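Chain particulars:
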Amino acid sequence: MNQIAIYPFPYGLLQIEYTEDQILSIANVDNFDGSSQTSSLSDQAFIELSEFMEGKRKEFNLPYLLDGTDFQKKVWSALLDIPYGQTKTYQEVAEIIGQPNAVRAVGAACRDNKLLMLIPCHRVVGSNGDLKGYAGGVQMKSDLLAIEGPKCKC
């Protein structure tokens, strides 16, 4: 059975949906009216995400479920290969997955990523280095890139 845990976070409330043994989604929410039930897994997720935001963590050690289409999973897997502190453009990601004409579809897959920060969509930028949309908001994307110190024109 899925559970939801809510934690205070610099960009609002952090909602972590999880099962007994894996994270299903992580999202910023403005408000929450349901019941929050924390566990050792959700607490560990919150700790790791907080450490990441503080620049103390570069990798996550959390079990999670990638739930999406085959194309989305291909994009998300490519994002996991972008090293900490580096960025790729949507075009570069499309080329990496062998579909150079799928730039907009790559952007859509990033938008549909349910695992905020775990799957590092924040490391994907526009072709001129501009920050495009991000599920946590463009300010959060900018802040995450600043924490990582990427070598880009961001």
In short: The longest strand covers residues 3-9.
